Amino acid sequence: MKILILFVLALVFSLCPAWVEAQKRRPVPTVKGKTASAQKHREIGGTAIVIDETLSVLRMKPSLFAESVQRMRRGRKVRILGAAEADGVKFYRVSAPPNNTGWVQSDALFGKFRTGDEERLARLVQASDGFDQIELAVNFLEIYPDSQFHPSILLLFGDLLEETCVKLSKDAGSRLNRREMAASAAPLHSYYLNFVSIDRYRKLGILFLFNSPSRTFHYDGASWKEIVKKYPASAEAVEAQKRLDSLRMKMENTPAK
């Protein structure tokens, strides 16, 4: 019996080194999913839109001191190819159709690929002014159609355009030649609706109405109508309806001057 026990113990000890070595050689199981690097730069491969033209310089290298390729205009779509940090900022290597590639400061770009961009762009819309503010609002509405800020941006957008109409009406009244218009057989409203200053708004898909008796432009109210239709229970819908009612009165009841 003792001999049998000793034999078993000897067999166990002889197998231990081989078992330990086999455990060392066994591959460590890998965790499926993104690597740490991919998680850090998960925006790579995504599409972004140039928003901040002040920061939108496309450069040869990821540095604020690097040679510039071009300054990209707002609204340009780019594809993110890589990321790097230098000079205290983050850069994206991007492909900018039709044939440019380079590095741009990440803060110039916005998209759904990055957490926080939605709120960041909403703040930028609020902080801007003039035509830039209108253009930024258009960009926001296109990039984030399901945003929680969508109703408020739509309301602001309509208000900005109706305010813009006051300036457009004044400019058209002073710049259009009344004697030429009177001598021409063309309708009065066609001169105003062809006024050169509304071209850039038309490129953004914005339409203006024209009241012939008062010779004034008015926003067609598309954003207010969208609020009433899509967000009928919102506080913005109440305000939007007020603006639509006011617009109808302006177009129907304005006396000739």
Explain what this protein looks like in three dimensions.
The chain is of the alpha+beta class and 257 residues long. It has two domains: 37-110, Roll (SH3 type barrels); 117-253, no CATH class. It is built from ten helices and nine strands. The strands form three sheets. A five-stranded antiparallel beta sheet has the order 6-5-4-1-7. A two-stranded antiparallel sheet has the order 2-3. The protein has a two-stranded antiparallel sheet with strand order 8-9. β4 (77-86) and β5 form a beta hairpin. α5 packs antiparallel against α9 (222-230) and α9 packs antiparallel against α10 (235-253).
Write a short abstract of this structure:
The protein is an alpha+beta fold.
- Provide the gyration radius in Å: 31 Å
> What is the terminal-to-terminal distance?
124 Å
DSSP strand (E) fraction? 15-25%
| Oligomeric state of shown chains | single chain
Chart the SSEs and their pairings:
Elements: H1 2-25, H2 36-40, E1 47-50, E2 57-59, E3 68-71, E4 77-86, E5 89-96, E6 100-105, E7 109-110, H3 117-127, H4 130-143, H5 150-175, H6 178-183, H7 188-193, H8 199-202, E8 208-211, E9 216-219, H9 222-230, H10 235-253
Antiparallel strand pairs: 1-4, 1-7, 2-3, 4-5, 5-6, 8-9
